[in-house]
Specification:
Order of helices and strands: EEEHEHEHEHHHHHHEEHH
Shape: globular
Number of helices: 11
Mean pLDDT: 92
Oligomer: single chain
Radius of gyration: 18 Å
Structural class: alpha/beta
Number of strands: 8
Distance between the termini: 26 Å
Strand content: 15-25%
Largest sheet: 8 strands, mixed
């Protein structure tokens, strides 16, 4: 697949590495990757979508070839939303775009999808395994009061979040993973052989810990009421080991135009079922 590249400067002087795929006359689609990945994780899906969209991907700060911030606070959600704005303004100008994101890409994209300045700019949003932290906080509070089983189910899936708050242990742990060892983890989760490897896994895993440390405690203890400014499709992964499918229950009160689809896959469905994921993204985006 052919692509061009571009560097984009952020509002706080970081540099983001951007790739542009396909025919620029097609509708624009921005794909945001999660943790501990970089934009290459989207390539199996891009292969399925490139005939229909002009696709923009980028390495989020700390991942891939993008620069690495020195301070944890530089990973805050508000700044990550500014990064999306910087990228789209640089490569699309005022052109509206569709948005799809996975894992931490979804978490950070919610900050933009619930931000009034993106109204009429983001045409649609497909979220995969990444809840809005504010929505999740309200949901967890409700579950603790009413359905403790669901509360503890999600907490048990999210044990790693507590570990990631430790400033030295979590980054150091990534030194024990090489691409093949991490690839084996993903392969076993997805029960699919020969999935693409992340050659940059130690770098991406170590630096991306800042995403958790900068945002989880503040978001979960002081949640904000955030309403979506565009139609949202939640692609729910039925066997997700890290994000409970029940989190979808929180969305109707925050999203006016909500669609929900379910995929029988684990957390990295964008690698194990790229055709299915691409079909859902395409079908939803083409409605708007």
């Amino acid at each position: 697949m052919d692509f061009s590249t571009q560097w984009v400067n952020t509002t706080d002087q970081q540099r983001l590495f951007v790739k542009l795929w396909g025919d620029s006359s097609k509708p624009a689609l921005v794909l945001v990757h999660g943790y501990p990945d970089n934009q290459e994780v989207w390539e199996p899906v891009i292969q399925q979508l490139i005939a229909d969209f002009y696709i923009v991907t980028y390495d989020v700060r700390g991942a891939g070839q993008s620069s690495v911030p020195r301070k944890v606070r530089d990973y805050r959600l508000a700044q990550l939303s500014q990064d999306l704005d910087s990228v789209t303004q640089a490569v699309l100008g005022d052109r509206p775009f569709h948005l799809a994101a996975h894992d931490w890409g979804s978490i950070q994209s919610w900050e933009s999808v619930t931000e009034p300045k993106f109204r009429s700019k983001i045409l649609s949003y497909s979220t995969i395994s990444g809840p809005c932290l504010d929505h999740a906080a309200f949901w967890l509070r409700d579950q603790f009061k009413q359905r403790k089983a669901k509360f503890f189910k999600q907490i048990s899936k999210s044990w790693y979040i507590a570990v990631f708050q430790l400033p030295f242990l979590a980054p150091t742990a990534w030194h024990f993973f090489n691409p093949e060892r991490w690839g084996k983890v993903v392969t076993e989760l997805e029960r699919t052989p020969n999935l693409p490897l992340n050659a940059n896994i130690q770098h991406d895993g170590k630096n991306g810990v800042g995403l958790y440390r900068a945002n989880f405690i503040s978001s979960l203890t002081r949640p904000r009421k955030r309403h979506a400014i565009c139609p949202v499709q939640a692609i729910v992964l039925k066997y997700d080991n890290f994000v409970s499918p029940e989190l979808i229950d929180a969305l109707p009160q925050w999203v006016e135009d909500l669609s929900v689809v379910e995929v029988k896959a684990n957390h990295w469905a964008i690698l194990s079922q790229p055709e299915n994921i691409a079909t859902y993204i395409r079908t939803f985006a083409q409605r708007f």
